[in-house]
Amino acid sequence: MTSRRHLRRPILLAAMMAVLSTFAASPARADRCEDIANQLKGQIDGLKVGITAANMIYLSHPMAKEMSLGCANRKYSNELYIKGFTRKPKLEFIAFVAGAAAIVFTLPKDELNKGVSGCLSRMGIFRGDDVSIRFRRLDMNCTRTKADSAIAISRSVDQ
Fold first, then answer.
1. Which residues have CB under 8 Å from 159's CB, separation 6+?
2. Per-residue pLDDT tens for 94-136?
3. Which N-terminal stretch is annotated as signal sequence (predicted)?
4. N or C, which end of the chain has less CB nearby within 10 Å?
């Protein structure tokens, strides 16, 4: 009777190499988020990528007072937050937000233009200063204060 002990070592070694190669091939979540931020920087003129802190990448642009890209976590896969300078946003600001969201969420810009303008235009006397809508599997939350307005667009993890 021959011993099978000498056959176990190569099989075990091959299994360990397969497991290690699967971990080495998968990119980290922060890398994907940084790739999206660099894609935004490359496709939008005047956009600057700032620091990364607490799973957020802070961005800056002349049309936005505040701007950030949220990386994947337990609640959402990506989040784009943009705050404007005025209480009633202009068409240029809406087009800028729709363009940035189209890059982040890989949807057509004209469709996102409808969703963003719909969310921002709903704020008012009847619906209040905090409006949440769902558009094309995206959660949009629009808020405004006496001086400015903001929109946060996110996609849930399960979508």
1. 77, 137
2. 999 999 999 999 899 999 999 999 988 888 877 888 899 898 8
3. 1-24
4. N
Any idea which residue has 């000498």 for tokens?
6
CB 43 within 8 Å of CB 36: no
Handedness of CA 138, 136, 123, 144 (dihedral sign): positive
- Across the strands, what pairs with 48? 60
Measured distance CA(156)–CA(159) in Å, rounded: 6
Q: Give DSSP secondary structure letters for 109-122.
A: HHHHHHHHHHHHHH
* Cα dist from 130 to 86, 112, 121, 151, whole Å: 15, 19, 11, 10
